[in-house]
């Protein structure tokens, strides 16, 4: 649920985040993982991951809701070879897709993808490359939809990483750049980023005791004057 706008006497609009409650159940064994969630609004979502073979995995996720055009189902077949990976996707709305990535050298991998959305009569082709070293990972992507994406992740230490991302759409001329961090402590993990639009986000996960976790999240969008804060508790490993 998004924030609720409340009119005020000043020209600015006050946005108050609305609450959301969910009940979830997880089932995990060495071969299968099943996760389900249901919200207080009756929205049901589920994810399934099943290993048919050591190199062949089937994934599925879906959502059922009373809101028009919001229910969907998506399936994925993932195959991992010795030096390549192939994936096929299919879903509601006549969505079909496939991607393939091949290791050219031990540090460089290249690949491509294709998709077709029959409901919206859209199709596209994309190409990508990934270069990894001991303490860095650099990726680049370009697609026929107009999107160009570049990213770089640097591992400063065993527990601290920094990243930067650049996205450009040569059709709409939209440009976004962002920098982020990821820090892991003994019982906590902190992640955050800020982008060129003035939007800053941070997320804290803390393990209070075995089987009990606490999380805090915040998003500050100064350009849109949209501020969101939240917290959560998790039970179980």
Automatic annotation (TrEMBL):
InterPro entries: Porin_dom_sf, Porin_Euk/Tom40, Tom40. The keyword Mitochondrion applies. GO terms for biological process: monoatomic ion transport; protein import into mitochondrial matrix. One of its GO terms (cellular component) is pore complex. GO terms for molecular function: porin activity; protein transmembrane transporter activity. Keywords: Acetylation, Ion transport, Membrane, Mitochondrion, Mitochondrion outer membrane, Porin, Protein transport, Transmembrane, Transmembrane beta strand, Transport. It is a multi-pass membrane protein. Pfam families: Porin_3 (PF01459). CDD domains: Porin3_Tom40 (cd07305). It comes from the Eukaryota. It is found in: Mitochondrion outer membrane. Belongs to the Tom40 family. Central component of the receptor complex responsible for the recognition and translocation of cytosolically synthesized mitochondrial preproteins. Together with TOM22 functions as the transit peptide receptor at the surface of the mitochondrion outer membrane and facilitates the movement of preproteins into the translocation pore. Directly involved in the pore formation. This is Uncharacterized protein. It comes from Saponaria officinalis.
């Amino acid at each position: 649920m998004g924030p609720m706008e409340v009119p005020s006497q000043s020209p600015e609009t006050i946005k108050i985040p609305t609450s959301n409650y969910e009940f979830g159940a997880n089932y995990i064994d060495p071969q299968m993982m099943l996760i389900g969630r249901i919200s207080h609004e009756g929205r049901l979502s589920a994810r399934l991951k099943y290993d048919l073979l050591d190199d062949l995995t089937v994934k599925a996720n879906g959502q059922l809701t009373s809101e028009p055009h919001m229910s969907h189902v998506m399936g994925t077949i993932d195959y991992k070879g010795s030096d390549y990976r192939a994936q096929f996707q299919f879903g509601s709305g006549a969505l079909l897709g496939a991607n393939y990535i091949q290791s050219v050298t031990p540090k460089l991998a290249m690949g491509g993808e294709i998709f077709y959305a029959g409901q919206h009569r859209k199709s596209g082709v994309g190409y990508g490359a990934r270069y990894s070293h001991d303490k860095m990972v650099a990726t680049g992507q370009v697609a026929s939809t107009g999107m160009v994406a570049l990213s770089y992740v640097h591992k400063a230490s065993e527990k601290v990483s920094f990243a930067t991302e650049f996205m450009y759409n040569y059709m709409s001329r939209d440009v976004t750049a962002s920098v982020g961090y990821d820090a892991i402590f003994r019982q906590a993990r902190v992640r955050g980023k800020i982008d060129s639009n003035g939007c800053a986000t941070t997320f804290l996960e803390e393990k209070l005791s075995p089987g009990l976790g606490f999380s805090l999240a915040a998003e500050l969008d100064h350009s849109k004057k949209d501020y969101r804060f939240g917290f959560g508790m998790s039970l179980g490993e």
